């Protein structure tokens, strides 16, 4: 089964959207296998967003993501990496479809509520940045036979 990294950003935490976002993944049928809350240090933010270093929005992005607590999660399930991206919607909430997380709760690209890994390579890299191996749980869910055929 695939795993992906999803994070409620500081604006999502401040606005009380943690439960909403977790609920969407739970109701879809995905399995929560890791969860923690922390305020991201600058060095970690610069590592996490290394691909954007040098871009005009980089400094603002780092300041935003380090500005308050985040909720970091690992979700597991069939095709969860791409599915999480679809559930989040486009990076710019103005372009995100209604019904997606960003299309429902966001307005500005610099306050887009949620992060999700964009590929299997990113998922592996980001899970490794934020979680130790023993912080990821393997457990059975009897309900899975009603979610997967
Ligand atoms: P995503 O978060 O959808 O993976 P990304 O990796 O391209 O998007 O960018 C990371 C974050 O940087 C994004 O969530 C918001 C911010 N960002 C991206 N493009 C931006 C832009 N053109 N102006 C301002 N902020 C931007
Ligand atoms: Mg990205």
UniProtKB/TrEMBL annotation:
Nuclease among keywords: no
One of the record's GO cellular component terms: cytoplasm
Keyword Cytoplasm: yes
Keyword vocabulary terms for this entry: ATP-binding, Cytoplasm, Kinase, Magnesium, Metal-binding, Nucleotide metabolism, Nucleotide-binding, Phosphoprotein, Transferase
Highest taxon, organism lineage: Bacteria
Entries under CDD domains matching the protein: NDPk_I
Family matches, as NCBIfam families: PRK00668.1 (NF001908)
Role description: Major role in the synthesis of nucleoside triphosphates other than ATP. The ATP gamma phosphate is transferred to the NDP beta phosphate via a ping-pong mechanism, using a phosphorylated active-site intermediate. (Microbial infection) Catalyzes the phosphorylation of dZDP to dZTP, when the bacterium is infected by a phage that produces the substrate for the synthesis of dZTP (2- amino-2'-deoxyadenosine 5'-triphosphate), which is then used by the phage as a DNA polymerase substrate.
Name of protein: Nucleoside diphosphate kinase
């Amino acid at each position: 089964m695939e795993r992906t990294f999803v994070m409620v950003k500081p604006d999502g935490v401040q606005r009380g959207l943690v439960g909403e976002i977790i609920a969407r993944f739970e109701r879809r049928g995905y399995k929560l296998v890791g969860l923690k809350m922390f305020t991201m240090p600058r060095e970690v933010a610069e590592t996490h967003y290394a691909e954007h270093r040098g871009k005009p929005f980089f400094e603002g992005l780092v300041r935003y993501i380090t500005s308050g607590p985040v909720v970091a999660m690992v979700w597991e399930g069939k095709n969860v990496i791409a599915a999480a991206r679809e559930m989040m919607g486009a990076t710019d909430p103005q372009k995100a479809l209604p019904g997606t997380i960003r299309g429902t709760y966001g307005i500005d690209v610099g306050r887009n509520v949620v992060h999700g890994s964009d590929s299997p390579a990113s998922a592996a890299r980001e899970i490794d940045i934020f979680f130790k191996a023993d912080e990821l749980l393997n457990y059975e869910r009897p309900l899975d036979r009603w979610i997967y055929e």
